[in-house]
Write a structure and sequence with these properties.
This is DNA-binding LacI/PurR family transcriptional regulator. Residues 1-39 form the HTH lacI-type domain. GO terms for molecular function: DNA-binding transcription factor activity; transcription cis-regulatory region binding. This protein is an alpha/beta fold. Helices cover 40% and strands 14% of the residues. It folds into 3 domains: 1-30, no CATH class; 42-144 and 277-296, 3-Layer(aba) Sandwich (Rossmann fold); 147-273, 3-Layer(aba) Sandwich (Rossmann fold), CATH 3.40.50. It contains 13 helices and 12 strands. The protein is elongated and about 75 Å long. The model is unreliable at 32-40 and 334-360 (pLDDT under 50).
């Protein structure tokens, strides 16, 4: 009977169905605490968000992601242990505590960095993990989408409207996904014969405001701005409105990650859309598959995990009222300097290594 109730082999399908039907009629439910002890598992997965607290409340991405994870995990009565820290080093310390105390069976990792210490630490701890984005060099099973194609779609769309001065308000260049977006933006702009200009931020609303003010105060202000988050795009819209710059007549705005915010402001914002809840659900499901493989005796070392990466649908552009052709006076070609100009908030050139398609 236990084989049938626990989904193990050695029982015919007909017998298994009879037992499961009888259990359902009797109202039987597994004791998750006892089951966890029996299988030497915690019955929980962990998720640590390594970002400054002030930036977490500014955007809806993580709330949607966590909702998706919780929805998927509830199907197997698996708990989600959530923690926020400010640095990846604090994440590593938390992983060590969790592993020593047996708090979680595995973890989901996000916001991967260049030379990120977390994948190596997880391998050392033999703690199964799934990465959101990142590159294959991390050695972790991944869930990712082709953000490169999304960036190309946005810049090509704006250039097709006639925009020649297209600025990019990026997130922090410490993140691999930001480095990848910035590189693709720069490459596409240069291919189109346009000059790329980037203002890097820390993803906070205030840094989005400041970047917008710098762009609008420049000698040749952009006629279009692309923002790395919905919250920064809404902040940029407010700055432009206060400065008397009409959107979209004088300035077109595009946000990364469509949300309710993008839809309720006026004008509604053109945005790059993806199903973030589905992304969270797929990440949790993929981690469960990794854990099931480990239970069947497949090596726990994430770098040797046989499960393939999961590729999500490419984020796509949703056009709304915040984008239009630029004013006629702004359509005269500007002289090319021939240099790649990508400035952060302090005016320094920022650059990063080429990375594969990535999510958060």
């Amino acid at each position: 009977m236990s084989y049938a109730l626990n989904g193990k082999g050695g029982v015919s399908e007909a017998t298994r169905q009879r037992i499961l039907e009888a259990a359902e009629q009797l109202g039987w439910r597994p004791n998750e605490a006892a089951r966890a002890l029996s299988f030497s598992r915690a019955g929980a997965i962990g998720f640590i968000i390594a970002r400054p607290p002030q930036t977490l409340g500014d955007e809806s991405f993580y709330m949607q992601l966590i909702t998706g994870m919780e929805t998927e995990l509830s199907k197997s009565s698996t708990a989600l242990l959530l923690q926020t820290v400010e640095t990846v080093e604090e994440s590593v310390e938390a992983y060590r505590r969790w592993a020593a105390q047996g708090r979680v069976d595995g973890v989901v990792v996000s916001d991967l960095r260049h030379d990120d210490p977390r994948p190596a630490a997880l391998r050392q701890l033999r703690l199964p993990a799934v990465a959101l984005g990142g590159d294959a060099q991390t050695g972790l099973p991944r869930v990712y989408s082709d953000e490169s194609e999304s960036v190309r779609e946005v810049i090509t769309y704006l250039a097709g409207l006639g925009h020649q001065r297209i600025g990019y308000v990026s997130g922090s260049p410490t993140y691999l996904h930001v480095l990848n977006r910035t590189k693709v933006y720069t490459d596409v702009m240069l291919t189109l014969g346009l000059e790329p200009t980037v203002e890097a931020t820390d993803f906070s609303v205030e840094s989005g405001r400041s970047a917008t003010r710098r762009f609008l105060a420049s000698q040749r202000p952009p006629t279009a701005l692309v923002y790395d988050s919905d919250a920064m795009a809404v902040a940029g819209l407010a700055v432009a409105t206060a400065a008397g710059v009409p959107v979209p007549h004088d300035l077109s705005i595009v946000a990364w990650d469509d949300s309710l915010l993008c839809q309720v402001v006026h004008p509604a914002l053109t945005a790059i859309s993806r199903d973030i809840r589905a992304l969270g659900g797929v990440a949790a499901s993929h981690l469960r598959a990794v854990l099931q493989s480990a239970a069947r005796g497949i090596p726990q070392d994430p770098s040797k995990d046989a499960l393939p990466d999961v590729v999500q649908p490419t984020p796509h552009l949703v056009t709304r009222a915040s984008t239009s052709p630029p004013p006629t006076s702004a359509m005269t070609p500007a002289p090319r300097s021939g240099s790649r100009r990508a400035k952060n908030g302090k005016g320094r050139v920022t650059a990063g290594p080429s990375t594969p398609p990535d999510v958060r």
